[in-house]
Design a protein that fits this description.
mainly alpha; 71% helix
Length: 86
């Protein structure tokens, strides 16, 4: 079978089209692909950790640290409000 000769183009639209085609193609090999079972398992672990993280953080902080974080969050919210009213 003869080799195909790829002709390069200088048209920006054609180059963009070729790049979009390459980036949206399905991979031809399984190298680097994560099995679905592993992906589902990692998603379950991640969601569980997110639910526990805030509670554990709350237990390990002192009342003063929580107060500082809360006041900083409130200031940030008020600054955002002031910026949007302009």
């Amino acid at each position: 079978m003869p080799k195909r000769v790829k002709q390069r183009t200088s048209d920006i639209n054609e180059i963009a089209h070729q790049l979009a085609e390459r980036s949206t193609q399905e991979p031809t090999s399984n190298i680097g692909r994560i099995p679905d079972a592993v992906s589902q398992y990692m998603a379950q672990i991640g969601s569980k950790g997110g639910k526990l993280g805030g509670k554990r953080r709350l237990k390990t902080m002192t009342a003063e640290e929580r107060s500082k974080i809360a006041s900083k969050a409130a200031k940030t919210r008020w600054l955002k409000r002031k910026k949007t009213k302009r």
